[in-house]
Amino acid sequence: MIPDADDQYLFDIVHRDHPVLNRKGNRVVHLSRVTFEGILKVTDSDVFRQMLIQGLGREKAFGMGLMTVLSEV
Question: Which end of the chain is more exposed for a tag (fewer CB within 10 A), N or C?
Answer without folding.
Answer: C
